[in-house]
Amino acid sequence: MSDPASLNAAGASAGMIAGQLDGPRGPKPRKRFSRQNIFIYGTLIVVALYYLLPLYVMIVTSLKGMPEIRMGNIFSPPVEITFEPWVKAWSQACTGLNCDGLSRGFWNSVRITIPSVILSIAIASVNGYALANWRFKGADAFFTILIFGAFIPYQVMLYPIVIMLREIGLYGTLWGLVIVHSVFGMPILTLLFRNYFTSLPEELFKAARVDGAGFWRIYFQIMLPMSLPIFVVAMILQVTGIWNDFLFGVVYTKPDLYPMTVQLNNIVNSVQGVKEYNVNMAATLLTGLVPLVIYFVSGKLFVRGIAAGAVKG
After folding, report:
1. Are 137 and 266 in contact (CB under 8 A)?
2. Which residue in 141, 149, 276, 282 has its CB near the most CB atoms, within 10 A?
């Protein structure tokens, strides 16, 4: 009889030989530069260049003096970098009768954006939470009417809102514009919050109800701590929409309270004096800086919130 140890060794050797004959196991390594990868990355690079080229032109133009700009070649980097156009755009450019640049419009936009974002998100989050977890009579009809409001063109309601704001004494004020932005942002934000809260485990809500928690306690102690991504999404959407708004700003406020976008329009479309393209480019970059910074700081949470709150429900 053969020794057990020798039998085990023979079996191991046979297994190794069989493995060598079968070849390497596991997934086949993918080529790094396959046709599919070249097409995908090539397309992405072309699209990125398409969107980044205007930004590059704006930046290099804003850092040039007017004599260099008049020489042409808008794609060439500045020979001598100057920040004078930025200083003039911020504090010296004329926006109508005033020549204090975009600084006044910047603070007006801040005073409009912050309360509008807080108010609209606070109300929409409660609406979405109630529609997702607290079923009440007529909830579906209420939700349908609310979402229908998101698809009505803003221009249709400009004049009726002017009359309403005039009757309550808020036409031409910053708080009147805050109310307008809050109301128009509520339908889409309610949809996002409702879908996000629906995607959360229902067992958490039921367990809290069994423990005796009420409407507000569940909202503040359970739902809010789990909802950071969708709050970031709502904040970015509202900040971008409100900060970049021109139509409401020019209709519902007066010249001293114009937001930054309206003052930018006055600078760029001014028909008096020499057309200073470097100042116009610097003013445009200053106006778009705030939403860009917010997006880049919280971009990952934005993607997570959109994936969780926009495709479920």
Report:
1. no
2. 282
194 within 8 A of 128, measured Cβ to Cβ: yes
Residues 251 and 117: their CA atoms lie apart, in Å, by 20
Measured N-to-C along each axis, helices 84-91 and 277-297 cross at an angle, to the nearest 10 degrees, of: 80
For residues 90 and 286, is the Cβ–Cβ distance under 8 A?
yes
CB of 269 within 8 A of CB of 79? Answer: no
Residues 117 and 78 in one domain: no
Residue 91 lies in a domain: no
Question: How large is the average pLDDT for residues 120-125?
Answer: 94
44 and 109 share a domain? no
Q: At what angle do helices 35-62 and 277-297 cross, to 10 degrees?
A: 130
Tokens (6 digits) for 302 = 């934005």
Please name the residues in contact with 165: beta carbons below 8 A apart, sequence gap of 6 or more. Answer: 171, 176, 179, 180, 252
Same structural domain for residues 119 and 73? no
Provide, rounded to the nearest whole percent, the portion of the chain with pLDDT above 90.
Answer: 43
Task: Specify if 87 maps to a domain.
Answer: no
194 and 280 assigned to the same domain: yes
Number of domains into which the chain is organized: 2
Q: Residue 32 is part of which domain span?
A: 4-82
Digit-coded pLDDT (tens) for 226-262: 888 889 889 988 999 999 999 999 999 998 899 999 9
Q: For residue 280, what are its two tokens?
A: 């116009």
Residues 214 and 130: their CA atoms lie apart, in Å, by: 12
Residue 264 and residue 102: Cα distance in Å, rounded?
Answer: 7
CB–CB of 192/309 below 8 Å?
A: yes
